[in-house]
Amino acid sequence: MKIVDVTKNFCSNHLEAYAKVRDAYSLWYAAYGNLTAEDFLKRLFELPETGDRAKEVVQFLSRYPERWK
Ligand SMILES: [Zn+2]
Predict the structure, then answer these.
(1) 2 found inside a domain
(2) Which residue in 23, 28, 12 sits closest to 42, CA to CA?
(3) How far away, in angstroms, is 55 Cα from ligand 1 center?
(4) Per-residue model confidence as pLDDT tens for the chain (69 residues)
(5) H/E/C letters for each residue in 20-62?
(6) Whole-angstrom Cα distance, residue 20 to residue 58?
(7) Residue 60 covered by a domain
């Protein structure tokens, strides 16, 4: 996954959430293999332990998939 510059769009709280979402994707990708970003975002959003900020990040990345390559 390429890191696209999203830092301009997020405040520090959301940047932290974004970093966690990215870390989770790396872990899940390693665990499941061939996990698409779309599937990942959908599953992460549905997890009860996903916090509000992380969910906002997920919604952002779902809406702007070009930021998530
Ligand atoms: Zn924020």
Answers:
(1) no
(2) 28
(3) 12
(4) 444 555 567 888 999 999 999 999 999 999 988 888 899 999 999 999 999 999 999 998 888 877 665
(5) HHHHHHHHHHHHHCCCCHHHHHHHHHHCCCCCHHHHHHHHHHH
(6) 11
(7) yes
From the CA of 34, how far away is ligand 1's center (Å)? 30
DSSP label of 17:
H
Q: Is residue 15 part of a domain?
A: yes
CA of 21 to the centre of ligand 1 (A): 14
pTM exceeds 0.90, yes or no: no
> Based on the structure, what is the number of domains in the chain?
1
Domain that holds residue 23: 7-67
1 part of a folded domain: no
